[in-house]
Automatic annotation (TrEMBL):
It comes from Saccharopolyspora kobensis. Residues 51-73 are annotated as: Disordered. Belongs to the universal stress protein A family. Signal peptide: none annotated. This is Nucleotide-binding universal stress protein, UspA family. SUPFAM superfamilies: Adenine nucleotide alpha hydrolases-like. Residues 7-128, 135-270 form the UspA domain. PANTHER family: ADENINE NUCLEOTIDE ALPHA HYDROLASES-LIKE SUPERFAMILY PROTEIN, USPA DOMAIN-CONTAINING PROTEIN. Coiled coil: none annotated.
Amino acid sequence: MHSGGQVVVGVDGSAGALAAAAWAVEEAELRHAEQVRVVVVTGDRSADDEAWETARSVASRSTPRRSGPEVTATVAHGDPADVLVQLSGAGELVVVGSRGRGPLAATLLGSVSAKVATHARCPVVVVREHRSSGPVVVGVDNSSGSRAALRYALEAAARYECELLAVQVWEYVEPTPIVPPLEHELVELRDEALRGLSEQLSGCAEAYPNVPVRRIAQRGHPVAELAAAAEEARLLVVGHRGRGGFAGLLLGSVAAGVLHHAPCPVAIVRDAVAES
């Protein structure tokens, strides 16, 4: 259980940013964090008055439902992604909206969200839609990054008191285009994926005995299958820089696809040990 930390949320006054701020406050309450820092970043100091008005407005509209974290407003100057990455060093979580469209929309366009998710020093959640129900879905591939994501997802499911869906996506590569796979070959590959999934959960899930876990081994494309699994999810969790079936997770098309196509908030979790 987290306590005493700071949740940073980057906003721009758009509806998407408001959803991100609301999500951040609810998450901070569940984590028992001390502070939610609402941040507007601008590269134009002549826009400071507008930026402060936006930051204070979002902060005031994001008041916790009960006694909880202090919600503060901040205006910073510079490149939005760089500023949020810098602030991530002192936070336990950074939250950003997806595809902002407000007067300060340049602060939270998709490319900024992706850059923050790639380089932040703590987990990042990109919020497309604020959800307070549904399971937590995690994509795993037996890499160190996905193991970090699995730990984060289990902790989140325990915090939300919900089910965890652990998903391993596998693809069958046909040796020639005219030779279809035999049914027993597909069954063997699916069973192998399920065994790998069980091995990854072994020893980790036991630490969260109250979290029901459902295992899914699905043939297909990682982006499509994860997005489908997360259709009713409260949160989708993926690892930073996977080295297995999600190779180059935040550096390639799979990461970009998940961030663009997942219907729910997406948490990107880096493996501090592997990247230290």
